[in-house]
Amino acid sequence: MQKVKLENEKLEITVNIHGAELSSIREKKNDTQYLWNADPKYWNRSSPVLFPFVGGVKDKVYRHEGVEYPMNQHGFARDMDFDLLSQTENEVWFALDATEETKKVYPFDFHLEIGYHLEENAVKVMWKVENTNDKTMYFSIGAHPAFFCPVREGEKQSDDYIAFRKADGTVPESFTNTIFGQGGMVTTEKKKYGLQEGILPITENLFDGDALVIENHQVQRVALMDSDKKEYLAVEFNAPLVGIWSPPKKHAPFVCIEPWYGRCDSEVFDGELKDREWGNTLEAGETFEAEYRVVVLA
Fold first, then answer.
1. What's the pLDDT tens digit per position in 276-285?
2. CA angle at residue 71 from 101 to 289, to 5 degrees?
3. Which of 59, 85, 132, 191 has a beta carbon 3.0–4.6 Å from 109's, enabling a disulfide?
4. Rounded distance, CA 89 to CA 83, Å?
5. How many CB atoms lie within 10 A of CB 127?
6. HSE-up of 152 (CA within 13 Å, CB side)?
7. What does each C-alpha distance from 208 to 45, 55, 79 come to in angstroms?
8. With pLDDT > 90 as the criterion, what percentage of the chain qualifies?
C-alpha cells in the first residue's frame, strides 16, 4: 500500500494513499506510537475518513428526489484510492473525485480534498468538499481516528480516563449522550453522564452500548488521560458532534475520538437525503471547509 511520510522535530506521521487514511502518529523523543495499528483482531482501520455519509442510513437505503440508493456505513471514500495533489516537508494533500461507480450510489459530482499538516506536537487534519454539480448537494463528513488506550504497556484501559472541555476552554459538569439502538441507528433516548472536573472514567462497560454520541457543540476538546490522570493526547475541533467509540464488549486497546459533521439516521427517520439530521448543504460551485487537530501531549 502506497504511503506518504511527514516529519518534524517532534512527530512522524504516515498517510496511506488508499482512503487518504492517517496510519501512524509517532512521537520521536520516546518512540511512542499513538495511532491504532489497524490490527484486525479488533478493528482493521486506523483513521478512516467518513464521506459522503457519517454512520449508517436506515435499512442501508436512502432516498433522494424519490429514488432509493444503497449506502454502506460511513460512505465510500475510506475504501477508494486518492490522488496525491501536493507534498511539502510538513504538509500533504490528497484528492478524490466522483466516478461513474460512485454516482450509482451517490448521484452527485464532487471534489474532495484531505490535507495533513504538522505543527510542532500536533497534526492538523483539513477537509475541503466542493460541489461540482449545477444543483444542490447534500453530504456528511467525519473523522474516525483510533488512539492507543492505554498508551503504556502493562496497563488496563479501565484505569484510564477521558477529559472534556467546552469551546471556551471551561470544564463541563456533564454531557448528554444520544443512545444507539438496533442496526447502527440512534434512538430518541438520551443519557446524561456526570463528570468530575470534566473527567469521565473509562469503565469496562462504557462502550457496551456502542459509541457515545455527543451532539450540539456540547464539547470541543476531548483528551485521553492515563492512570495518573495525565493527558497524553487531545483532539480539538469545531464540529457540532463528536463520537467516542471502542468496539462493544471487546475490550479493545484503543479509543476513537471522532469529530463529525453529520451522523447516522435515527430509528424513526423516514425522510429524504435533504432531511437527514446534521447533514450539510452546498449550492452549485460552493466549497465546504473544516479541520480538527490531534495534539500529542508527551
1. 999 999 999 9
2. 80
3. 132
4. 18
5. 20
6. 15
7. 20, 18, 27
8. 96
Mapping DSSP onto H, E and C, the string for the chain reads CCEEEEECCCEEEEEECECCEEEEEEECCCCEECECCCCCCCCCCCCCEEECCCCCCHHHEEEECCEEEECCCCECHHHCECEEEEECCCEEEEEEECCCCHHHHCCCCEEEEEEEEEECCEEEEEEEEEECCCCCEEECEEECCEEECCCCCCCCHHHCEEEEECCCCCCCCEEEEEEECHHHCEEEEEEEEECECCEEECCCCCCCCCCEEECCCCCCEEEEECCCCCEEEEEEECCCEEEEECCCCCCCCEEEEEEEECCCCECCCCCCHHHCCCCEEECCCCEEEEEEEEEECC
Mean pLDDT (whole number) for 25-51: 97
Euclidean distance between CA atoms 257 and 20, whole angstroms: 18
Report d(CA 68, CA 70) in Å as an integer: 7
pTM over 0.70: yes
